[in-house]
């Protein structure tokens, strides 16, 4: 093979393995996904197999390497030294690996008529296809690019449960420290248009939300962060109202389907009731998980084992990285129990909505959790 092509092969093989190593480490240490990490590690070995099939002598590749004489070492893109987060890091690494594998594949075609030529480029081609699948799994599992670090208190607002006008409940909840509000209207009597009007009105009360303004003109939570607006179940209403996210039940759309519709425009939360559901939500890329039920409620009076569940959730390497909102029968009187277990976020409905003083209730809950 031409010495110039050998240099291309050497550089591309190095780029592919380096980028795949970054992806492997993200799957292993950030996602705690052993299966995905092993698949990506296997792709690194496929690069070696392709080089062996090509008949590229490792000693010759190194001998023809000329890093000081490479004009590309000084060519840097404007944002090459900046990664906004692990998701951008994963995306850059996946693209780098794909480009390097394509370069190896094309170089291998030069020697197609030689022994191993076709075998080599076929190996690189199949590795590239598998990379695309690994990239999809990795990117989806890492969630939205601006996923929350975790909320302290999300108030679930259902109009029929509100003792005061629902608009006041939202405003007072935010003033009391709630950093997220979820519109949760499950009644079939609420029309789509009415739900959308409510969601848009809530958007105006809550304010611009995440990523819309560094200084929200309408409202802010006691923590100083712009509060978020979440819509229960309805992806279409969340998009049309400009909400920050959508919350899904086990029978709703999957996280992947929401990403197909909304991309990164919406945060995606998932209700989970056991570790099987929680691990699946984490693997699919949920930005946060509802964890419950913690205590018996008016709608879920059956015996619950929520305290054991939240301990398992927080102690599991795969789920602990995903922000949580404990839910179910939480009041100012029992939230300290969850705080002692290590819970840092809760979702509350009845205790706030049915109160004469939503602001005071929210303040008590936030303080019991350890402040803003």
Structural commentary:
The chain is 51% helix and 10% strand. Strand 1 (153-157), helix 6 (166-175) and strand 2 form a beta-alpha-beta unit. With 372 residues, it is α/β, with parallel strands linked by helices. Strands 1-2-3-4-5-6-7-8 form an 8-stranded parallel β-barrel, surrounded by 6 helices. The protein contains 15 helices and 8 strands.
Sum up the structure in keywords.
372 residues, alpha/beta, single chain, 15 helices
- How many runs of DSSP E, i.e. beta strands? 8
Rg (CA only): 25 Å
SS class? alpha/beta
- How much helical structure, as a percent, in the residues? 40-55%
Q: Termini separation (Å)?
A: 64 Å
Q: Based on CA inertia axes, which overall geometry fits?
A: elongated
Which strands sit side by side, in order, in the main sheet? Answer: 1-2-3-4-5-6-7-8
Individual helix count: 15
Strand proportion: 5-15%
Q: What are the segments in which pLDDT stays under 50 over at least 5 consecutive residues?
A: 211-218
Overall residue-averaged pLDDT value? 90
Q: Specify the biggest β-sheet.
A: 8 strands, parallel, barrel
| SSE pattern | HHHHHEHEHEHEHEHEHHEHEHH
């Amino acid at each position: 093979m031409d010495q110039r092509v050998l240099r291309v092969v050497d550089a591309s093989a190095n780029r592919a393995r380096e980028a795949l190593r970054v992806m492997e480490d993200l799957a292993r240490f950030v996602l705690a996904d052993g299966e995905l990490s092993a698949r990506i590690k296997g792709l690194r070995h496929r690069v070696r197999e392709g080089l062996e099939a090509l008949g590229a002598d490792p000693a010759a590749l190194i001998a023809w390497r000329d890093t000081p004489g490479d004009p590309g070492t000084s060519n840097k893109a404007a944002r090459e030294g900046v990664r906004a987060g692990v998701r951008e890091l994963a995306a850059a690494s996946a693209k780098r690996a794909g480009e390097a594998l394509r370069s190896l594949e094309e170089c291998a075609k030069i020697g197609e008529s030689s022994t191993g030529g076709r075998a080599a480029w076929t190996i690189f081609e199949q590795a590239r296809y598998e990379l695309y699948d690994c990239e999809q799994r990795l990117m989806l599992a890492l969630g939205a690019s601006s996923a929350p670090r975790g909320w302290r208190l999300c108030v679930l607002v259902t109009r029929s449960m509100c003792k005061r006008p629902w608009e006041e409940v939202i405003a007072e909840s935010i003033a009391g420290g709630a950093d997220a509000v979820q519109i949760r209207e499950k009644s079939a009597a609420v029309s789509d248009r009415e739900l959308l009007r409510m969601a848009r009105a809530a958007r105006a009360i809550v304010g611009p939300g995440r990523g819309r303004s560094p200084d929200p003109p309408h409202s802010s939570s006691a923590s100083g962060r712009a509060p978020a607006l979440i819509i229960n179940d309805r992806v279409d209403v969340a998009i049309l109202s400009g909400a920050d996210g959508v919350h899904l039940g086990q029978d709703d759309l999957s996280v992947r389907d929401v990403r197909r519709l909304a991309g990164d425009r919406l945060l995606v939360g998932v209700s989970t009731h056991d570790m099987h559901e929680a691990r699946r939500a984490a693997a699919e890329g949920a930005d946060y998980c509802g964890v419950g039920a913690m205590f018996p409620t008016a709608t879920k009076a059956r015996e619950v084992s929520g305290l054991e569940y939240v301990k398992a959730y927080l102690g599991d390497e795969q789920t602990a990285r995903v922000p949580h909102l404990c839910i179910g029968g939480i009041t100012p009187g029992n939230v300290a129990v969850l705080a002692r277990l290590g819970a840092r976020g809760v979702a509350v409905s009845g205790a706030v909505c049915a109160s004469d003083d939503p602001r005071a209730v929210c303040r008590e809950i936030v303080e019991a959790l350890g402040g803003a």
